Amino acid sequence: MKLWVFVLILLLTTFGVNGDNRNQHGAEIEDNEFAEFEDFDEDVVELASEGDLPDKEEPQEVADDFQDLDEEDEDAVVETEEDEFESLDPDEFEGLPGDDTIWENENKKTKKKKSSEPELKIADVPLHLRSWDKYYIEFLMGAGLLVYVVNFFIGRAKNNSIASTWLKSHVDHLNKQFELVGDDPSNKKAASTHQFVKESEHLYTLWCSGRTCCEGMLVELKLLKRQDLISVISDRLKPAVDQVVITITLTSMDPFVFCVGTKKSVANLHKNMQDVNSFCVEKSRGGEKYGLSSKLFVLSELFGELPNAILDNAVRKVLNENEGVFDSLLISDQFSGPLLTDQQEPTAKFPEAEKIISLTLNIPSENKERKIPNLLNLLKMALYLTDKVKKHRLSRENKMKTDKHRQEAMLKLMKQTHLQRQEAAQLKKEEKARALKDKMMNEEDPEKQRRMDEQIHRRELNKKNKKMMKGRQFKVKAM
Amino acid sequence: MEEASSSNHVEEEVITNRHKNYTVNRYKPKAEEATTSDDPVPDYMNLLAMIFSMCGLMLKIKWCAWCAVFCSLISFANSRSSEDGRQVLSSFMLSISAVVMTYLQNPAPMTPPW
After folding, report:
1. Closest approach of chain B CAs to the CA of A354, in angstroms?
2. Best residue in B2, B5, B8 for a mutation probing chain A (most A CBs within 10 Å)
3. ipTM over the 0.95 cut-off
């Protein structure tokens, strides 16, 4: 762009100095495309020597011209020195004097520039000098983990101490009542361990066996999950207590279902337990009718003589003295565990029932070490009831009532599971027929095979005839 | 009604004492299905720990890895003695490895969402 401007200036000056095509020597110049460049250097020298330099005002005019030119020739392609020499082959100029070609010079310049640029090094900042403040969330997480672990050990130790306190206060009496106190299932021989079996950090069990009137007694300590911090926090929000559940499996008893306990526990038993839900149809009655506290309620299959027979003076005395600790007492000959939920389908078979006495006690939250030994009286009451229930005989009327209840329950279950049993029977028949056919196919003797085939064919015909006869009978009856 | 046989107590060794007239029955623990239905917390926490570990490792999310460690600890605290301890231990090691890997890949501290 600058070159064109310069050329233009030159042109203007030459036309001004020389009116015709003559140079300074008066020689004629050919009017061709290179004519204007013939006196290129001389004109420049003249201008320089004569001092015929443009005035200060002229640069402004020139600048204005430049501006005009710039505006007009925006789309024009201006060849710069770099563009001009790009197309030239550098090999042409090898060996010539002054072989410092432009691009080689430029390469040298860039190389110098590169070598002169300083290399950037990132300093390795040592770990201890970094700002650890930014890791506060990680520190919080670590602290939370530490707190959880510490709580685990403390909670585990506390639960352990509760279990050992209970065992110390009760083991002597258990040794007198049972031959086997504490059984480890991993041992091959039945030997008393006198120790709890640790099911988990909050659940301890003790099995006792070898006593008249009962097959065995299972003591379960269902403690709070003190080893789990989240459970500890939830227990603070929703209060819960440690419980002792004593389950005595009886050898024999008359058929009845009876329970007594706090309002909440009785309602819970009626809602969740299969036997109580099925057989205790009547509404619960207040404990004051039977000489108990008003906070206790009685729910029975048979009201009348039965509650009075069970809740005699001795039992009433113990229950009234230990009102704060007693939760519930269940005596049942049809105990089969919790009620089946909607998701679970009823099985075709009647559920296996056990004859049990189940006593649930709440361990007080304060002064555990002093109050746990007081639970021994309730254990003694449970063993006393074991002997009493085995010997107790229902009146003839009551026995007929209870037998009738059980038959009704059985029929109800049969109806519910009718479809299931039908499908099971169908499957059995199909399997039998298939087995018979397989036997016939595998038979080597052709005569026997033929006879078996005839037998199968006759059976199928008989079945079809029976169905047809039934259908005709129904039609006749309908008519 | 037929007398139902006891389901919980197997008479593996019966000592009959004719004078005292009783039998000594061995203790049979409850079936695993019954125990899992009673307390499903350790199983759920174990599963959550594995899910969080995978999220932390694959997606390089730090808070997931930390949550996995907590879940595996809770599962361990609530686990039953009858359960295999190797599963709980492997879950714990997986969660620790998730935390280590996320910090090796990106040592920058965790930033809160606010």
Report:
1. 6
2. B8
3. no
The rounded distance, in Å, linking the Cα atoms of A249 and A246 is 10
pLDDT (tens digit per residue) in A213-249: 899 999 999 999 999 999 999 999 988 999 999 999 9
pLDDT at A353: 86
Question: What span, in angstroms and rounded, lies between the C-alpha atoms of A131 and B69?
Answer: 26
Distance between CA atoms of residues A195 and A205, nearest Å: 9
Instruction: Kindly list the residues from chain A whose CB atom is less than 8 angstroms away from the CB atom of residue B38.
Output: none
Q: Which of residues 9-48 of B touch A (CB under 8 A)?
A: 9, 12-13, 15, 20-29, 35, 39
Comparing CA positions, the residue from A149, A256, A247, A145 lying closest to residue A206 is: A247
pTM of the model: 0.67
pLDDT digits 0-9 by tens, A400-409? 999 999 998 8
Task: Quote the DSSP letter at residue A203.
Answer: E
Helix, strand, coil abundance in chain A, percent, nearest 5: 55, 15, 30
Backbone angles phi, psi at B105, to 5 degrees: -70, -35
pLDDT tens-place string over residues B74-87: 999 999 887 778 88
Do A17 and A42 touch, CB atoms closer than 8 A? Answer: no
Structure tokens at A257: 């279902």
A127 DSSP 8-state letter: G
Please state, in angstroms and rounded to a whole number, the distance separating the CA atoms of residues A476 and A466.
Answer: 15
- Return the beta strands (E) in B14-114 as ranges: none
The terminus-to-terminus CA distance of chain B in angstroms comes to 68
Strands (DSSP E) found in A235-294 = 242-250, 257-262, 285-286
